[in-house]
Amino acid sequence: MMLLGFALPVNFNAPYRALDLPDFWRRWHISLSTWLRDYVFFAIAGPRARNAMVLYGALIVTMLVGGLWHGPAWTFLLWGLLHGVGLVTVRAWASVRKRIGLAKHNSRSSRFASVLITFHFVCFAWIFFRAETVDRALAMLSHLLAFTTDTSNLSIPLILVVALGFIAHWLPDGWLEIARNGFVRLPAPVQACALFALAIGLYFVASSDVVPFIYSRF
User: Fold this and answer.
1) Would the pLDDT of 1 be above 80?
2) 70 counts as catalytic
3) φ, ψ dihedrals at 39, nearest 5°
4) Catalytically annotated residue among 70, 83, 120, 169
5) Which of 58, 114, 138, 139 is 20 to 30 A away from residue 51, measured at CA?
């Protein structure tokens, strides 16, 4: 990816298409996950990573450090713990499956189910990450389980943006490159009109409240 003439590495690679949690962390915030792997996980596990208990402990501690990297709060710690336990579960299940000789299914339905389970686990963990306190996270979970039919917070522009984001997330990588190259070849007035339309759409979707930049605390 080019920005101001500099070639930057891809930092997010369609993470919500991940088949499992390790795949998610190979796609999500790649610079952070690579740093955690190189400087925390390898430092803890080292050559003893073949030992299951050492491996599992290193995974959990690494994700706890990842949570603390975002801030010294119980919500971030719980988010890191959830991901650590999730990574351990995936590794342990792979070990059990190999031990009993259970073949890994690669059918379209099994892959879809894997993506669906991973997506919902990640979204579940995001509740703790985004909540200001653990109590608020639990309250949100309680509201989710209530299955309310209130749609007052769902506007048509918001639904359209979410739908477009979902579609774009599942487009093959080659299609996005083709669209990018096609936009670059458009006449400047057409590009300006497209960008103006995008800005207008974002204006109608954006909240009128002042939302602080979450990463300013990290």
Assistant:
1) no
2) yes
3) -110, -10
4) 70
5) 114
